[in-house]
From TrEMBL:
The lineage of its organism: Eukaryota, Amoebozoa, Discosea, Flabellinia, Dactylopodida. It comes from the Eukaryota. This is Uncharacterized protein.
Amino acid sequence: FLHPYLTYYNQTQAISGDHYPYYNLARLIIRLLSRETYKPSSPTAPLSLNFVENLLGYFELNPAMPILFPKGVKMMVGMFELMWGTKQGDELREWCIESGYPLVWAYNPTMSFFRCGASGDYPGCDIPNNLTVDRDSANVRILDPIVLEKVPPGFNITISRKDQEVFEKWWETWDVEGQSKERIEREWDGLYEFFFPSMAIEPLYYGACSASNCVGVFVSNGVCVCPKP
């Protein structure tokens, strides 16, 4: 993906004018790899990503070489607004367990609700004019505790039985299909608020963990989520 990234970033000045520094490729890479670049101390919450960083930088690292499959995959990310509580979501969870992949849930309304059409004026088109507003937090994920408990070789964290039961009840009683964008956003906010202390993680960043096979870092306390040795 390096060539299309460079092509895009080299052309953003004509689009964004004075906002061009927001789209510097080096800035994006630094923001995705380190949380300590833009603040004097480690922030208490994951760095937000602006619109373009969410759209083109959602994958923490884009591959510059072939990835070994399946060992090269650390986890799967399910989109809350598209799959939560659905049959497709059930299939994803089952597949992750069978394949041995941890599953996390993320919410990215801007990217997943693109319905702009060729003219750019379709109802529900969320692309901001200067591409820097509407900062989202697509780099915030909620661990799926049911999947995590069942994938080998196991992980270094313990999620309480109560949290597991609440999570599964939430899954069984709320389905995103047919719901409005506003209702989906409210539901995600509730899910995130409830599970923030115990299951909210962010992507790995430079120096976060001693092992490279960890899947994320707890936002609340900085503890790494890693496979057992």
